Amino acid sequence: MGSPEMPGDKSLEVPRKMNRGIWPALGLIFVAPLVAEFLLGNLPVKLLPALIVLAPMYGGGALLIRESVRRTRRGWPSIVLLGMAYAIFEEAFTTQSLFNPNYLKLNLGLLTPAFIPALGISAWWTLWMFMVHGIWSISTPIALVEACVPDRARKPWLGRWGLVVVVVVFLFGAVATTAIGYRQDHFMASKAQFVSAALVVVGLAALAFMIPPRGSSPSQAASPSPWLVGAVALLFASASLFIPMHWGWGAVAALLGLDVAMVLLVIAWSRRSGWGLKHQLALGGGAALAYGWHAFLQHPAVGKVDPSVRVGNAIFLAGAIALIWFAARRISAASLTTD
Predict the structure, then answer these.
(1) CA separation (Å) from 257 to 47, 111, 253?
(2) For the purposes of burial, counting CB atoms within 10 Å of the CB of 99, is it exposed (0-12), middle (13-18) or buried (19 or more)?
(3) Does an H or E element contain 204, and which?
(4) Exposure pattern of 140-177 as b/e (b: 16+ CB <10 Å)?
(5) Those residues with Cβ within 8 angstroms of residue 40's Cβ, 6 or more apart along the chain or in another chain
(6) pTM of the predicted protein model
(7) pLDDT tens digits, 74-87
(8) How far from chain centre, in Å, is Cα 297?
(9) Residue 129: which of 105, 77, 104, 94 has the closest Cα?
(10) Kindly report the CA angle at 103 between 137 and 202, in degrees rounded to 5?
(11) CA-CA to 101 of 20 to 30 Å: which in 36, 152, 185, 246?
């Protein structure tokens, strides 16, 4: 008969810590695609089974980015840069939407606004993909899920073997997404375009890890209310969703203006005393709610608009609100402030 566990026995300490990390990791794997495609309104609720491919792709990518950044004690600038690298990886290699003039034969005209003939890309669509994936597909889910586990928000969730599993899962999602897309549309970008895209991915990833871990030296000014931060994030995110593509280079300028203004504002705010996890949740919550309410005005990329589509929009928006509420309660209970 085995000996009972003694009060001071630490034999189960590591497994318990690993189990605590598995749940938020699994949560991120599913929250990422739900935000990226369903909360956005790009896919209707009846296509939820597509999560079998989307979760490994979006969720696996978000989790790998999050783990690599937290393991090296870096912060949000690195997460955003890696999210932009993910954007190029997905849109240049798995979907090839950056180069395909008629993506999936949907006649969307994605490359028409601000087209750059020498590169075969649209400046508007490329910038928009940087924003969509860098902010919404990657950063927003990470911000929301981390806020749900305040005690482990800045710590790695997985061990080495867990990372290996996630890499395999992510590669499965990437290959499956590529295969499904190619079956629908046999478009193939040029070698020069693939090589250029790969160099951009590598460059963004290298830049992300060149940023040194941030020290804690807040200014004397008090940080703003999380409610104000959330409202500003909601306003800026909503504004970006309403910039029409037919503005062409004007749309590029407008998006860049919003990006620069928001980045400078967040940098200034995050250097103030008291900036913490509640503000991170406010930023992620504002971005998520912009997606959620705008979905009611959007036509899904697949299928027609019927009552089930709007019911699905309501379900996903309610789910986002519930997740934000749960995270806020968790932060309040923990009374945790992090840099």
Answers:
(1) 35, 21, 6
(2) buried
(3) helix 191-210
(4) bbbbbbbbbbbebbeebbbeeebbeebeebbeebbebb
(5) 136, 291, 294, 295, 298
(6) 0.91
(7) 999 999 999 999 99
(8) 22
(9) 94
(10) 50
(11) 36
Locate 22 and state its tokens. 């598995």
Q: Which helix (H) or strand (E) holds 272?
A: strand 272-273
Is 153:277 a contact under the CB 8 Å cutoff? Answer: yes
- Contact at 8 Å (CB) between 320 and 288? yes
Burial of 219 (0-12, 13-18, 19+ CB in 10 A): exposed
Phi, psi for residue 156 in degrees, rounded to 5: -60, 145
Q: Specify the pairing of strand 121-122 against strand 219-222.
A: unpaired
Q: Is the pLDDT of residue 143 over 90?
A: yes
Are the beta carbons of 172 and 56 closer than 8 angstroms?
yes
The alpha carbon dihedral of 26, 32, 35, 40 has a sign of: negative
Instruction: Tell me which DSSP letter residue 4 carries.
Output: P
Instruction: Give the separation between CA 218 and CA 226, rounded to whole angstroms.
Output: 17
Which residue ranges make up each domain of the chain? 16-334
Residue 219 three-state SS? strand
Residues 27-38 pLDDT 10s? 999 999 999 999
Return the structure tokens found at 216: 């804690």
- % of residues, the chain, pLDDT over 70: 91
What is each CA distance from 35 to 252, 262, 313, in whole angstroms? Answer: 24, 21, 11
Locate 202 and state its tokens: 């590598």
